Amino acid sequence: MTVKDYARKLKIKEKLLYYLTLPYRLATAKRRALPDFLIISTQKGGTTSLLRLLEQHPQIHAPHTELHYFSNDSNYQKGSLWYRSHLPLRSALVPGDVAGEKTPGYLFSSKAAERINEDLPNAKLIGLLRNPTERAISHYFMALRKGTKQHPISEAMMTREERPRSFKKRGPKEINLWLLGDPIKRKKHGAGEILDGDWDLDTQTLGRSNKFVSRPLYQSIVAHFKDGVPWEKTSLFQGYLLKRMRNTGVVRGVNNMQELIDKYNDKVDKLYDSVRKEGILLPSKGRPKIDFMYVHIGRGGEIIWTGGGNHRLFIARYLNIGQIPVRVWWRHKKWQKIREKLNADRSRWGEDWVKPYLNHPDLEDIPQRQK
């Protein structure tokens, strides 16, 4: 019997049953099994359907909830006992029984890969891939149900260049970027890759956009730090974060709005004070762990926003900070060839085709022609 079936039998909500049983499960966590398998995939990739099929076998046991243990820092910090509290008791298993869990997000998380390799080196990984078109359509209707999509599917399936102007996503207002070079090149995690293809054509560039200031996060930063509006009264909390909490039950590693408010009052306020007083700092012995924005470089040198570091970026924009440090994640193969040409022959810096790139921040590490 699944958790959902048991909750239905008791005529209570599955989420309520989860919290009612949590103290007992934590108390017995040391006597619970670790997973023999993990189901990883992409969102709308078929993991729920696969788990429902597997649950029909009497010797397969898995929680219905996605645990996000290895991919979520907050959950991982809760420790292995919290993780094991979701899994079956070893005494309830007979020879031949196996336990597992499904969390699609593990497939794309480099942290999850490292942690799984360290904590569950013998676990089997079941990866699911789905026809991209079918997956995109399924994702669209899920977003439509949640209210995060408004435009018709015919427009949602277009590239950003094909969509009507009002539906195109815009990057933030142009900011001069201070590139810090590549991160540690661990190929299995995709860092420092040189990629060919058209991946750079349908992305958000860090270009000029008047719509940047209309983003809920930016508006909320202005309202909170300029006008003194409490975080919970901002449009970010009243709209997007509240809706996401209701739909998923977990936002930024916490499972209720008060914890999320406390987190913003603590971490985001401290981040703002730090940026306001000292700018965006570089790593040093006293502060070795600083999270930077990561960017990709397109074929023509376009600086492409990966979507990370929103709070840091938007605070810098609000404070009119002219430069922010970022790290390069991917470079397009055609752009890399330009870098290699200029690095191999310094005389080419004087050629006309190079003029548009003379002040490009991703070429600052390449020596220019001696004057």
Automatic annotation (TrEMBL):
Keyword Transferase: yes
Annotated source species: candidate division WWE3 bacterium RBG_19FT_COMBO_53_11
Domain of life: Bacteria
Listed GO MF terms: sulfotransferase activity
UniProt-recorded name of the protein: Sulfotransferase domain-containing protein
Sequence ranges assigned to domain Sulfotransferase in this UniProt record: 35-153
Assigned keywords, A-Z: Glycoprotein, Transferase
